[in-house]
């Protein structure tokens, strides 16, 4: 088996990307365990924002349905029948 093409196996020059959370330039390398984030803090912030958002949306829509239901029932009760 011939040796692998050095161009294929050569590591690419480290590229820099802005951290999605704080926009700090981050070197994209296997040494950066938090990529694409610059740090564990930014990684957790992003995950937390995600979890927070889905939690909030789910709770709101459930409450909205209950609210609408209650409002409709109240409107029925309050509406004069005569
Ligand atoms: Zn960051």
Structural account:
Inhibits all the catalytic activities of DNA gyrase by preventing its interaction with DNA. Acts by binding directly to the C-terminal domain of GyrB, which probably disrupts DNA binding by the gyrase. One of its GO terms (biological process) is regulation of DNA-templated transcription. Pfam families: YacG. The protein has helices at 6-9, 40-78; strands spanning 15-18, 25-28. It is mainly alpha-helical. The radius of gyration is 27 Å and the shape is rod-shaped. The protein has a single domain, classed as Erythroid Transcription Factor GATA-1, Chain A. The chain has a two-stranded antiparallel ribbon with strand order 1-2. The mean pLDDT is 76. It is built from two helices and two strands, in the order αββα. It starts with 5 loop residues before the first helix and ends with a helix. Strand 1 (15-18) and strand 2 form a beta hairpin. The protein binds zinc ion. The site of zinc ion has 8 residues, from loops.
């Amino acid at each position: 088996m011939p040796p692998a093409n050095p161009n294929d196996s050569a590591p690419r020059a480290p590229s820099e990307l802005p951290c999605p959370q704080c926009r700090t330039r981050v070197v994209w390398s296997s040494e950066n365990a938090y990529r694409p984030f610059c740090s564990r803090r930014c990684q957790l912030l992003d995950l937390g924002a995600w979890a927070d958002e889905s939690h909030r949306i789910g709770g709101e829509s459930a409450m909205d349905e209950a609210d609408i239901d209650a409002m409709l029932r109240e409107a029925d009760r309050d509406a004069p029948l005569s």
